[in-house]
Amino acid sequence: MIVIDTHIWIWWASELPDLKPRYRELLESNRSGGLGVSVISIWEISKKYQLGKLGLNRSFDVWLKDALALPDLRLVDLSHEILVESTRLPDGFRSDPADEIIVATARMLNVPLLTADEKLLNYEHVSKLT
């Protein structure tokens, strides 16, 4: 399994050109092990949509239903261990809480994270796909 950052999931589910061929290739090559999305990503997308910071190519409810039905997608629930880990990330990693939870999820599952976020790419205490 790999964990997919929120923006990668948005690009994939919305079929946006932001999903570069390399990311698409990494999604395809990791499908058999499962493509994990933290449940916090649903909150993050919902919040951005509510605030008008995210436009979608269909209604929110239809987009979410379709996004959750993507092949080999696995929704990763929050656990108390992930939540605590998000507050104890090495080297004092600070970002928005959703990023901290997504990083902690990948760390607790001991799987790589697929992201295009420079801050996360530069954080050495989580394995990343490149």
Number of strands: 4
Proportion of strand residues: 5-15%
Q: Specify the helix fraction band.
A: 40-55%
Shape label: globular
CATH superfamily: 5'-nuclease
Strand order of the largest sheet: 3-2-1-4
CATH fold assignment: Rossmann fold
Q: For the terminal residues, how far apart are their CA atoms?
A: 15 Å
Question: Which whole number gives the mean pLDDT?
Answer: 96
What structural category arises from helix and sheet content?
alpha/beta
Q: Which CATH C-level class is it?
A: Alpha Beta
Rg of Cα set = 14 Å
Please describe what this structure looks like:
It is a single chain. With 130 residues, the chain is α/β, with parallel strands linked by helices. The protein has helices at residues 6-13, 21-30, 40-50, 60-68, 80-86, 97-109, 118-121; strands at 2-4, 35-38, 73-76, 113-114. The protein has a 4-stranded parallel β-sheet with strand order 3-2-1-4. It has a single domain (2-121), classed as Rossmann fold. The protein starts with a strand and ends in a 9-residue tail after the last helix. Helices cover 48% and strands 10% of the residues.
